[in-house]
Design goal:
Layout: E1 9-13, H1 17-23, H2 28-48, E2 53-60, H3 68-84, H4 86-92, E3 94-99, H5 107-119, E4 126-134, H6 136-149, H7 159-164, E5 176-179, E6 198-201, H8 211-223
Helix pairs in contact: 1-2, 2-3, 2-8, 3-5
Amino acid sequence: MTKAIIPRHIGYIMDGNRRWAKSHGLPAYEGHLAGYNAMKEVLTASFDAGITCVSVYAFSTENWQRQAEEVDKIMGLLVSAAKKDLPFLLDLKVRVRMVGRREGLSKKVTDAIDTIERETARGTAGILALCFNYGGQIEIVDAVKNIVQSGATPEEVTPEMIAEHLYEPDIPPCDIVVRTSGEQRLSGFMLWRAAYSEFLFVDTHWPDMKASIVHDIINEYSLRQRRFGG
């Protein structure tokens, strides 16, 4: 049997929480809670397989358009997870890094993120990039703003310079982006880092994701031939 090729960075667009809840006759929040529990299984399987960077699209800048009650529940879920499930992250031995804008988030939420980042800073197994209040276009806009503020001339601007000014610039490009629930679009996820990413769209709603599906994703990735334009 051919040995599986392990991607360095896998990005998950966690879609289908609300559809899963509706299909089970439950309120939207129960879908997000089930999605969070599924995320823990997916993260465990991903890092156990040897992937060293996992990014998850947890809350986009467009998600503010949802009903205030649902947004508040998502924010509360993050705060609760920072307290209750910190041991899980420590056991995974991963460093959590927030990728997104802190502006607009409550102090309670930013404090929770600060706690997770601080307590997991010594993790050696890899990076968990939490894309929260994140938008791919906004990320590039913020990078360009920072470059302009640095005084760089137009001639000095290169793709490498832009990459250096992205949120958390040491997070590597995505090798494969996986979106669940049958949708086939990026929705602004990792636009710069996904330039040469493989894409995989699966019909499974996110709360139904299992470790076995992660293994299927890795096997599928192993079959892909990446050419990077060559």
